[in-house]
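Lecture notes, continued. The same structure-token format from the folding unit now serves as the input rather than the output. Read the line below as a description of shape only.
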């Protein structure tokens, strides 16, 4: 049976990253269409609701992370682990229904969506079923299969959402469309799970709980941290401010694709090797060298084109989002490194350390975010998040260096990416000033010039990149 250590991490990362960019293309078109059709208030209302769902489902996801960790270990009771996940999911969805019945008026008022309670439950059921099973597929090292199934879900989501919105459902159409696409994708995901569920034994549950008591808290703290910005803006300012934030955030999401693809496989690989007492530093160092390969040029691209990007794609009513774009691009850059290191900490069976780090950084983000948002507006919450994420990086880097001392935290390849991005910036700024950008294809042409400069420069100056590409191509040919 396939396990995480027998799968090519580089090959799976390339497959998953390709899938992520396919999803990004579909999602990007979707956000443009839906932002224009719904307007900032309804568009922001949906994302406020979805942010609440993503916080409320953290117990299920945290248990799923524990299942992923134990599933990836040598000699795991895989059937029992899968059974425990299904039982936990059913119980949590039932508990959520009771909570929603009590909080229905507040949900509708906070999001501005009259049907918010039923939309919340539909989304909760879909996400709570899909995401934990997705983690089981990742635990087998099949990150490419996991991500391409998620891409299928995105390809289904867009037309379903668009059709429901055009039928007059408004923001509710976005929720129903996402839920429907998720349920339709579940059978494909199950295809990659080679075992059926079984009733878990007490020993299995105790072994799971020893990890889940931390991973569930980590999941809650991590999502509260990730979605704190949009929730705070909805509370202190208005749904429209949340809509502006979401527009800027969506533009920066591709920066994390390589990190999310690589770190998902890295966690399972580190877990499996750690359970067998094998070395970890080479896998960790190689992953850190490339997880920011998209984030670095995106930050410099945001510096050069922030206002043009927002207004050209989303329209003048979202112009205020331009000020948030650069800050969020910097946050995503730091996150590519800190997120990878956090997965390593989970993989070496120390989720308790991630719990402490998450609690500290979330606390800082809340205090600083409220203070800065009240004093300087929406940009304040972005500044607070950058500061908190930088602290997270410092703390997880210290932990990884202590437990895996041979790890190279700042590889030369990262410096080469910065150098190539600086040259790209120098070329893009005068190019953008020389061209009249009043159509989306004008902007894409300028972005393509920048991407070409960055890619060519990096390929020339980075020997490690060339060697890595050759290795991935070779492993892909062997698989074929």
């Amino acid at each position: 049976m396939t396990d995480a250590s027998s799968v090519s991490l580089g090959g799976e990362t390339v497959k998953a990253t390709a899938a992520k960019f396919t999803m990004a293309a579909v999602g990007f078109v979707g956000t443009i269409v839906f932002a224009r059709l719904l307007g900032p208030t309804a568009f922001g209302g949906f994302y406020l609701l979805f942010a609440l769902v993503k916080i409320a489902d953290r117990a299920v996801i945290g248990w799923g992370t524990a299942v992923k960790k134990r599933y990836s270990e040598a000699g795991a009771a895989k059937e029992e682990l899968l059974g425990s996940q299904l039982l936990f999911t059913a119980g949590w969805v039932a508990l959520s229904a009771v909570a929603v019945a009590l909080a229905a008026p507040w949900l509708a008022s906070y999001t501005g969506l009259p049907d918010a309670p039923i939309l919340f439950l539909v989304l909760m059921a879909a996400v709570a079923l899909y995401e934990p099973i997705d983690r089981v597929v990742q635990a087998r090292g099949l990150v490419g299969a996991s991500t391409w199934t998620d891409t299928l879900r995105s390809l289904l989501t867009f037309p379903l959402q668009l059709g429901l919105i055009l039928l007059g459902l408004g923001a509710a159409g976005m929720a129903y469309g996402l839920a429907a696409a998720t349920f339709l994708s579940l059978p494909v995901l199950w295809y990659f799970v080679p075992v059926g569920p079984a009733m878990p034994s007490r020993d299995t549950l105790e072994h799971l709980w020893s990890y889940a008591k931390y991973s569930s808290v980590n999941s809650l703290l991590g999502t509260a941290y990730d979605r704190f910005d949009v929730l705070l803006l909805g509370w202190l300012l208005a749904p429209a401010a949340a809509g502006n934030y979401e527009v800027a955030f969506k533009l920066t999401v591709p920066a994390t694709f390589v990190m999310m693809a690589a770190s998902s496989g890295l966690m399972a690989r580190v877990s499996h090797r750690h359970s067998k007492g094998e070395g970890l530093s080479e896998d960790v160092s190689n992953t850190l060298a490339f997880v920011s390969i998209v984030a670095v040029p995106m930050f410099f691209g945001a510096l050069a084109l922030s206002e043009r990007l927002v207004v050209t794609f989303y329209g003048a009513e979202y112009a205020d989002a331009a000020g948030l774009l650069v800050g969020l691009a910097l946050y995503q850059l730091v996150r590519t490194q800190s997120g990878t290191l956090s997965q390593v900490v989970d993989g070496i069976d120390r989720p308790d350390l991630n719990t402490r780090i998450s609690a500290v950084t979330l606390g800082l983000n809340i205090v600083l975010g409220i203070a800065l948002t009240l004093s300087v507006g929406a940009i304040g919450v972005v500044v607070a998040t950058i500061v908190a994420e930088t602290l997270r990086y410092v703390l997880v880097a210290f932990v990884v260096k202590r437990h895996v001392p041979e790890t190279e935290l700042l590889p030369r390849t990262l410096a080469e990416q910065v150098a190539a991005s600086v040259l790209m910036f120098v070329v893009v700024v005068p190019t953008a000033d020389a061209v009249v950008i009043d159509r989306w294809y004008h902007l894409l042409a300028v972005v393509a010039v920048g991407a070409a400069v960055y890619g060519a420069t990096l390929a020339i100056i980075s020997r490690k990149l060339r060697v890595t590409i050759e290795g991935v191509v070779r492993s892909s040919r062997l698989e074929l």
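Point for the exam: Residues 1-7 have pLDDT under 50 and may be disordered.
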